[in-house]
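Tokens for Uridine kinase. Go.
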Amino acid sequence: MSSELSGDDLTSVASTLPVSPTRDRFQPKKNTVLVSHGRPPWYDEDGKPTGDAYVVAVSGGSGSGKTHVARQIVKSLGSIPTVIILSQDSFYKYHSPEELELAHANKLDFDHPDAIDMPMFAACLADLKACKQSNIPVYSFAEHQRLEEKKYLYGATIIITEGIMALHDPVLRALYDLKVFVQCDSDLMLARRLQRDVKERGRSVDGILDQYLRFVKPSYDNFVRPTAAYADIIVPGSNNTVAIELISAHIRRQLQQRANQFRQKLAIPHLYFNGRSGASTPDSRLEDLDLQVLPQTPQLKGIFTILRSNSTSRQDFVFFADRLSTILVEHAQQYLPYFPKTITTPVGVESHGQILNAKHICGVSILRSGGALERGFRRVINDVPVGSLLVQSDAKTSEPLLLHAMLPVCVKLRHLAKESWVFLLDAQIGTAAAAFMAIRILLDHGVREERIIFVTFLVARGGGVSVLRRAFPRVKIVCGAVDDLMQEGWLEGYRAEGNPEGLGRKIWVMQPGMGQIGDRYYL
């Protein structure tokens, strides 16, 4: 994915309301999510987070160029993982009718520290820094009001916060890894503010000047400019290319120190984790791995014979893959909670049975091979939301990268996530790199480990499943069959570093396996 920051690359997280053109026009556009090449692992082989997201604060006066500096830092970084630019403007407090009347008359002080909901800002930033999801408030400058909806954010490696009071609150300052203050001439700041508020916020020139003299300038002198003492670096508001290059070089060094690469250890665990609890050899017993394997009936063996065959047509492959996924999900349902229920049959006789006792159930497929289990999942558990995670391998390191997360609402909202049961769908667990990342994502959202049920066609006994079980022992893994070996090789068509023959990216293939399941199912 390109790291150039064109207009299409800047995905605004300010508002998605289907509202009037005027209201859309004046929504804040400072909050952005920038995706370059995905997020690499932020956890170790024990499944524990190894470091927080890197947080940079950019402060300065109104119109000093804070947002421009933030975006220039991102552009200077080049090919980087996911970045969030988080504006303090989103955290203006909810206003009463009396305050709204003053705001529309340009008589409400928006430049005082008390105008910002600092505790909410700190709480949201702390969640994002700790690799958890957060729901950011949406503020309308046209209405001078915080809107009811919020914007979901997750997965940032770098968080850049910008705002006039970004360095004012000590709780916020404790969350920053790097503090930047943008210093600019007062006349230039006023000119920029006039141009911005007329064009983007629909204000009159007289109103802007009155507000500037009444609130903005005194606030800058009393509250904003003194916070420059807390900055690690002071950047000029214009002609700041050298300063931005120094900042981006520092951030790149910090990211390199936090890099965590261990997929090869997962692929061949007996070479790296020999003697550690849960780290198995290729001939380990299934009981040690604690897998829920389907009974190997003649029907199941027949299905696998067809799916493994290289001569099976796509039509037959899809049919039997759907059949197998249906059987797997039916088997996996036994791990959901049930409670006794007595009913009366049509002939007037009482029958004692059980009924599902789960408040929220959803599915999450790991794209794209996990999509091969979605149809079977929907056949068995009807009318529940199904989300997806796009996890792919880095062409240079072969490490997993989180490129996209589209999760159900019951997972996005933390108070619902802790009550949810999640069926995690993927076609196979080989090195277990994608499985590691997917489980860690669900845990970051507040899903309980014992409420994750991983459903898959195949598991490699000698692959990363042993390390996965040690890291997440309470996750249930339901599979159709277990293969013995993982073979190391190179994927043709990729040119990557560390491969002098130029054969491509290193991969580990399950044997006997079922080939590229996603390709066989969809192509």
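The radius of gyration is 27 Å.
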